[in-house]
Amino acid sequence: MNRCGLPFWLAGCSLALSLAAAVSWLAQPWLGPLSPQLAALLYLGTTALALFAVTTICVRWRRQLAQGKHAIQSLLTRPDHDFLDEKPPVIPLAADHPLRDVINNLAERYHSLASRLQDSEDARAALQVQLRKKAADHELASLVLASLNEPVLVVDEYGELVQANPSAERLFNFNAGEAYRRAIRNIPRCEQLLDLLNDTQRRKTHTTRQEEIQLPGPDGSPRWHEVTTCSFTSAAAKEAETLAASESGVLATMQPPQGAVVVLRDITSQKAAQQRYAEFVSAVSHEMKTPLASIKAYVELLVDGDAEDEETREEFLNIINSQTDRLHRLIDNVLNLARIESGVVEIHKVSQPLNSILIEAYETVKPAAEAKNITLVSALSPLYLPVLVDHDQLLQAAINLLSNAVKYTPEGGTVTLRSRNLDGEVQFEVEDTGVGLSPENCRRIFDRFYRVKKDTHMASGTGLGLSLAKTIIEDMHGGRISVRSQLGEGSTFTVTLPGAAELG
Amino acid sequence: MSHDILICDDELHILRAVEFKLKRAGYSVRCAEDGGQAWEAFQARRPDMLITDLQMPVMNGFELIERVRQADEGKPPLPIMMLTAKGYEMACREVAEQWGIQAILAKPFSPREVVEQVQMALAEHVS
Predict the structure, then answer these.
(1) Most CB contacts within 10 A, which of A49, A133, A459, B124?
(2) Half-sphere exposure in the Cβ direction for B49 (13 Å, CA)
(3) Do B87 and A289 touch (CB under 8 A)?
């Protein structure tokens, strides 16, 4: 028998007995009176059965209630993560338990809520990670922007300044905080950017524009800047455009208004270098054309038979020869200078006695001096003068100085080479009894291709020898070169180099 | 009487070559080694033609021409030829028009062409 049917069976029995008693009492007229014992037995039996049935039902309900309570309690005290299993938790209740379905529904609901809560938690954690990353990215971008030497401005689609790095603040002389959201056309010095910004922002596609402008530098002098503007569409502008399009029911075919990033780069030195390069090329071509012009002219005179006597022919041939040598020297000097400046020449600085290099230079120039009947005097210091130098380069500089002196000293003159120790530095000088230099000549004598007015009897220089010597001495060896002179009384070129001991 | 031509160039070899060729062609030639000397020679005696370099000490070719033109104001303009090693940085036609220069010859030049140009310039001047 089913356990749950027992109380009802007992209640039924009790009802049957009560009915039997009632029937027997009602049937008394026909059956005769029941004996009192039998009647008492009938009532007692009926009552006992009824009491038993009620008690049984109560006990059972109480037990079921306790089971239900326990099940709910176990649901409430269950750890959260237990609800994250794929299936809802199984509630240990008998199949006939009246609360079983309700509690199971509750568990399922709880499971579903827990899953959704967990999804939200996961999403929140992911958002937090994204937020932290964005914050870190933003901080990094701000740091990068702040550390840039190049001034950077960001202008929004309304032409208002929304960001500027410290370099831009310095260049345009404003405070980014105060200038924030100010129209760029109202910021002094920025007006030069307006045309370029307009040109960039009004284009239908994202574009990058570039131009060169002049702005006053920190000392007020104009400096060249290369301005690059790059348009962009902010997320807010895109959203606004999409919203407007959806509200009006028209497809968003219009390009949303664009902001622009402006980056400036100081190209003053680059411009100057370009200018110097152009001047250098112009000067080199000019210097090369001059001996070439002589060569061509004299060759043509010889070809045309203009030189009728042997003496004239020899004179012309000698000129062609000397001009060819001049061209050769010029090309060598230009190449040397280019090699030194481009760093192609490897520099091997070795500690060595200055005097030995000077003696080598002296010996190299001596034949040219003798040919011009110039006395070349060596007055070198008896001291050991160590210098940390590249032998070949310093020798080249010394030869250039000596041959320059020989070139500009008239026949019968004297060129003196000296060296000395000077408080941790070493010095050598080349003194001549030549034509001398005016103060203007002294100022410009080391400029490339600068040459003093020539004398008929003097060989033509290339205009690069002294410039090359200055580059070798100052740029390559950290020394100094200077000249003192008086017109007609000769010149003295002095070179000072750091002593090797000082350089360590 | 042969035409008197004043040549001015600080490159002495070029001066000598042009002088030699022009003398061979029958001209009377005076030489100056810079703009200052040329100006003095011009003031001493006005030549029939001036041939000058551009880049020179003391006074450059343009300064010299400017002085000559100022001094010549009211007279038929003196034929001038310029010999220059200047290259791309000089737009010859504009310079020639601005200064009224008959010919600009770029170095390296042909002495033969110098003589031809001198003959043409002097012929135009006379006519």
Answers:
(1) A49
(2) 28
(3) yes
A484 touching B (Cβ < 8 Å): no
Confidence at residue A456, expressed as pLDDT on a 0 to 100 scale: 42
ipTM above 0.85, yes or no: yes
How is residue A213 written in tokens?
């402008």
To probe the interface with B, which of A453, A455, A462 has the most B CB atoms within 10 Å?
A453
Chain A positions touching B109 (Cβ under 8 A) are: 293, 296-297
* Start-to-end CA span in chain A (Å): 114
Q: Evaluate if pTM is beyond 0.80.
A: no
List the one residue out of A260, A151, A150, A256 whose CA is nearest residue A197: A260
Tokens 């001291």 appear where? Answer: A383
Q: Do A293 and B89 touch (CB under 8 A)?
A: no
Q: What is the DSSP string of A17-36?
A: HHHHHHHHHHTHHHH-PPPH
Q: What residue type is assigned to position A318 of the chain?
A: N
As a whole number of angstroms, the distance between CA A227 and CA A221 comes to 18
| Minimal CA separation from A413 to chain B, in Å | 23
The answer to whether A282 faces chain B, any CB pair under 8 Å, is yes
Residue with tokens 């070795």: A350
CA-nearest residue to A320 within chain B is: B13
Decide if B29 contacts B7 (C-beta within 8 A). Answer: yes
Cβ A294 vs Cβ B13: under 8 Å: yes
CA distance A466 to chain B (A): 19
Q: A444 CB near a chain B CB, below 8 Å? A: no
Cα dihedral A289, A295, A301, A305 sign: negative
Q: What is the DSSP string of A228-276?
A: EEEEE--HHHHHHHHHHHHHHT----SPPP-EEEEEEEE-HHHHHHHHH
Is residue A180 over pLDDT 50? yes
pLDDT of A309 strictly over 70: yes
- Token output for A444: 């410009």
Give me the helices (H) in B27-91, please.
35-44, 61-71
